[in-house]
Amino acid sequence: MIRVRPAEQAGTAGKPGSRFTGDAFAYLTLPATDGVTINTVTFAPAARTHWHSHERGQILQVLSGRGLIQTRGEEPLVLRQGDTVWIPPGETHWHGAAPDSSLTHTAISLGVTDWLEPVVDYPGAAQAEETSS
Amino acid sequence: MIRVRPAEQAGTAGKPGSRFTGDAFAYLTLPATDGVTINTVTFAPAARTHWHSHERGQILQVLSGRGLIQTRGEEPLVLRQGDTVWIPPGETHWHGAAPDSSLTHTAISLGVTDWLEPVVDYPGAAQAEETSS
Predict the structure, then answer these.
(1) Would the ipTM clear 0.95, i.e. be above it?
(2) Structural domain spans, chain A
């Protein structure tokens, strides 16, 4: 068993890896252990991950702010404080902040992450506003 | 992808299943999906799970209160607000409240849970006090 206390978490000053667009900041809660990695990530407005998928899926827990998440081929969904999201194994998606809000979420990633290209069709403010729920 | 909002979570009025000692209350955040289940559980003082293990491991995130967790054959560890715990696949353990405090944690369980016998050697208040860290 591994117990990690808040003071032991590794904070980063800049981008959590190179697979992000815009400014993002991460605290590494659980370094990769038995294939499980836990990060708490803050995205500046309009910042987001590249498209990617997780070998065994991912859980997101939204701590604050407002964001967006999109599965390839589907419409984006809004993320709000208190939301929990399950992304199934192998499902290609991206997540990040709304155009006009920061977003902080905990990300529990299961298995290897397969990183893909940047998100170029990021929704503008008007479109994100229409994505009301 | 499944997005669960707080208002959609299923609260229970009593024990989350029959594999607990004492009073415990659960909100089901993510019903079992692709083998992943997320519960937020509150234990009254001295309440705890039976011994058990998880096929693919478990993550605990302590939201409030103070608790205890023990791996079979090891000393108990104290759980405090902000702690994150990783329990590896197949590791037999129990978790619950301290003798003199409630505990609320989110539990992310991976795969099938194998339930075992009740915990009979639950630490008394004095012993839990000595388990200082």
Answers:
(1) no
(2) 11-131
